[in-house]
Design a protein that fits this description.
homodimer; alpha/beta; Pantoate--beta-alanine Ligase, Chain: A,domain 2; 2 domains; about 35% helix
């Protein structure tokens, strides 16, 4: 496994890797969710690259950039064990050199949900992902359904800017009790960790109700809010029943939807989501 | 010479062309300036592509999108004669399909000169050029020094977003009397056509003064304004003596500069520029 830092090292290493080349963009502190993406890539591509970069431009001024957990040695051991061929770990100076001033923006899709609560977040995400795509030249890129809006935004960017790259969105990987894997789970103390399962319980209840015939968007939202309100350590930021493509809130009777939540448990902001009414075969 | 319209046709045609592949992005109605770019590309690349697309997103609401001259048959004859391998002529629907919402912005460099007078122009340029780069997958792209700010903005975008593409800026091609070639010269009636030479005369005078030792930015600006004011059909929009990299206006004693002008002759807006104090060997 080759580990590189500069653009020159990256381009030279990339040139020696066979296509199709699949990449998994990460911010490190890897968990099973990331590793599942590397495994999907490994299964489907002739070579696999992973980027590790805690991207400052996607953090707001009040967010956890400084506190964001890091453990590079462990990350590299895990990726080596998965048979990853190339790891790119650029510094901030490599990614954002002096004079940097170019940004990629996706408009409407970033105005709702996460984008509405985290101004500038998606500008940072789309810009760094465009850079990763150009620098790493993948044929395929793997993202997690955990960040459902991010996946939708990146799919849109790829179509709109004609990137010759296939975007593959893989299922959320969960702990045994249902909590979606996240590097930010490491912020939780034991009581908060227990409380955090309420996101999964709320989503599961709504999906169960949908499967038993509940099609009213407001009823599904209310059901999730009610379950979340039973957990005193949880503070709801949003509960959404939205169109899976436009991400606009639905009302009345729905056919398919993205159910998504953002909830603070202590100071830790957790997100989770489930899809209803979608053919599962279109995704990994 | 293969002429294609859809993305699928383009990708298939591109796959059969040898690298290095050089491209010349154009809006059609080709003149010797464009053809000189195709010749540079032909000389330096194993295959050459030209795009022809009158990009609506780089025209302001009060600008000449509808009036912009078009002559596709002539364009294709000219490109065939130059030995161009591939011409891509996308429709507006191919470039901007329903739901399009992703934009590429370069910040500070687009706030001055042309960008200050044509709000949104460079957002349209950088977005469409990013799309051309991703769709055509060139190794090199050729632009004219005529649009000096555009060249600087695209160079910045390529560095900032890590496009693996070499940007090559080629000299302005001029008519016998010095008028810079432009598709918009076709708007000029005979009296205006004569008056239009005043841009070149103003620039030549300033370059001459620089070469004879005049280093004061304000003196060079005044000299150009004075010459332009002798032409009753010309109305100056701006006269600039700017840093060739940052494009910020210079004052006091200068070493090197981009001298640039925007002048209305009748309703036709003309631009032109010359560099002083630059090593000529860095450009074609």
């Amino acid at each position: 496994m080759q580990v590189v830092e500069t653009l020159e090292e990256l381009q030279s290493a990339r040139g020696n890797l066979p296509s199709p080349f699949g990449i998994v963009p990460t911010m490190g502190y890897l968990h099973e969710g990331h590793l599942s993406l590397a495994r999907w890539a490994k299964r489907e591509c002739a070579s696999v690259g992973v980027s590790i970069f805690v991207n400052p431009t996607q953090f707001g001024p009040q967010e956890d950039l400084e506190a964001y957990p890091r453990d590079i040695d462990r990350d590299l051991d895990l990726l080596k064990a998965e048979g990853v061929d190339l790891v790119w770990m650029p510094t901030v100076e490599v990614m954002y050199p002096l004079g940097f001033q170019t940004w990629v923006d996706v408009d409407a899709l970033t105005q709702v949900l996460e984008g509405a609560r985290r101004p500038g977040h998606f500008r940072g995400v789309t810009t760094v992902v465009a850079k990763l795509f150009n620098a790493m030249q993948p044929n395929r890129a793997y993202f997690g359904q955990k960040d459902a809006q991010q996946a939708a935004v990146i799919r849109r960017m790829v179509v709109d800017l004609n990137f010759p790259i296939e975007i593959i969105v893989c299922p959320i990987v969960r702990e045994a009790d249902g909590l979606a894997m996240s590097s930010r789970n490491s912020y939780l103390d034991p009581a908060q960790r227990t409380a955090a399962t309420v996101l999964h319980r709320a989503l599961t209840a709504a999906v169960g109700a949908y499967e038993e015939g509940q099609r009213d968007a407001e009823a599904l939202r209310s059901m999730m809010i009610e379950i979340l309100s039973t957990e005193p350590l949880a503070r709801v930021q949003y509960v959404s029943v939205a169109d899976p493509e436009t991400l606009l809130e639905l009302s009345g009777s729905i056919e398919r939807a993205l159910l998504s939540l953002a909830v603070f448990v202590g100071k830790t902001r957790l997100i989770d989501n489930m899809l209803v009414g979608m053919a599962k075969s279109t995704e990994r």
